[in-house]
Amino acid sequence: MKNYELVLHRVEADLAAGRLRIGGRLPGERTLAEQLGISRPSVREAVRVLEAMGVVRTATGSGPEAGAVIVAEPVSPLTAVLRLHLATNHLPMGDVVQTRLLLESWSAREAAGRELEADELKAAEGLLDRMDDTGLSPEEFHLLDAEFHVALSGLAGNVLIAAVMTSLRSAIHGYVLAAVPNLPDWEAVAVGLRAEHREILAAVRGGEPERAASLVTAHIRGFYQAAQLAPFGGEGGTA
Amino acid sequence: MKNYELVLHRVEADLAAGRLRIGGRLPGERTLAEQLGISRPSVREAVRVLEAMGVVRTATGSGPEAGAVIVAEPVSPLTAVLRLHLATNHLPMGDVVQTRLLLESWSAREAAGRELEADELKAAEGLLDRMDDTGLSPEEFHLLDAEFHVALSGLAGNVLIAAVMTSLRSAIHGYVLAAVPNLPDWEAVAVGLRAEHREILAAVRGGEPERAASLVTAHIRGFYQAAQLAPFGGEGGTA
DNA sequence: CTACCGGTGTGGTCGGACCACAGGGTAGGG
DNA sequence: CCCTACCCTGTGGTCCGACCACACCGGTAG
């Protein structure tokens, strides 16, 4: 048993038992070291891991914002894990895209079947309005695009799936952007994407689950085919 | 910019550029510290993070197995992130189960639509045979059960989804086990689960995607309802 | 009453030291 | 000549003590 794991187990146990809550603070590194009978460097290694896992946020200084504060940020660790494993080339980009397709089509179906608050849709709509600006560069456009898709999957109400979607989009971002030059006419593509987005949102708002899901599937598939990316054989959503 | 991040970026860049491959080794901690102009403790913090992310495996001693070896182990970090965030109670168990349902039904549909090698199915079948042993405790049974479901999702051929499934199962394990006492007759339930497993595998082998998917959905839903667990309203798979 | 300014506690970093471990080269015995 | 036992070397694992930068907070001077 390595020493830093003592800290990890201690923190996990404290979380599970409710002794630590979001917004709470870990004891100081020196205190923790003394309590567990280990050295400060060992404690620091554990805190770094917790930070990388999105469980704490550290800050120097004093006051309520300083120290190791408990947070709940699952997106950044998921993104980091994805990025690193994509870098090893042992995680095919095709699998990532396929997973995205699955999660998004499900989210759209689910969201269309729920009672949505008006302000939930407002955020997504605002993004679409901003995407109407024809002066946007492909990169700016795609950032808004990604944000829209993430917002859409958030409407399904499953925080895990929303978090995974966010990570997937981050991981895919560079990949998609690199393929923009493959498109024969970017502006024409953008026009098509805008229309499809509106259509998807309308289907979600109108409570048409199957239509929303198939629109999303077609929307994503269409773009990847146009950009000559990731030939993926899987279904993703409902056929 | 914190010092340990220098190491993370360096390693990620080396991975992306192909200077580091699976099976390769990181420079020694002392060497790395000198190269980046930082101290060894800073390097160690970064290595710990990489280890927690499943990118390296560290070992003492000498020889080809010692040092920080590059590996590709996405499952353990995903599991750890899930466990920690479940402990914070900011990740509802219902969402985890719902996600599992989605991934598994998709995997079953996908697997049934593929050409499978005989030995791919062998592993799953072997697990089912072992589960026929009536002397198994609920915990032993459930471990095999989880392994079977993971193997099943592996048949779809998407390593990301398979990895996520493995993590979800680990996260759910304790939760499910704690609910076994809720079951009026464990042995009767086990008999039903065995039959359903065989049926699912048959549908996958027989190339019946929709049947496989709906069997899986019913299989999972049935168990959760019997154990009076996680009332989840979502669809998960195709309705 | 206000503005300044040090005290105090936080994480961030560093250098050095020692330990346990495992492999490989070497010196010794057969 | 071969085999065995030993020691040397390099690895990560751990620890100590120190100093820095930072941010709040309280006392103090105006």
From TrEMBL, chains A, B:
Signal peptide: none annotated. GO terms for molecular function: DNA binding; DNA-binding transcription factor activity. InterPro entries: GntR_C, TF_FadR/GntR_C, Tscrpt_reg_HTH_GntR, WH-like_DNA-bd_sf, WH_DNA-bd_sf. Keywords: DNA-binding, Transcription, Transcription regulation. Residues 1-73 form the HTH gntR-type domain. PANTHER family: GLUCONATE OPERON TRANSCRIPTIONAL REPRESSOR (PTHR43537:SF24), TRANSCRIPTIONAL REGULATOR, GNTR FAMILY (PTHR43537). This is GntR family transcriptional regulator. It comes from Kribbella rubisoli. The lineage of its organism: Bacteria, Bacillati, Actinomycetota, Actinomycetes, Propionibacteriales.
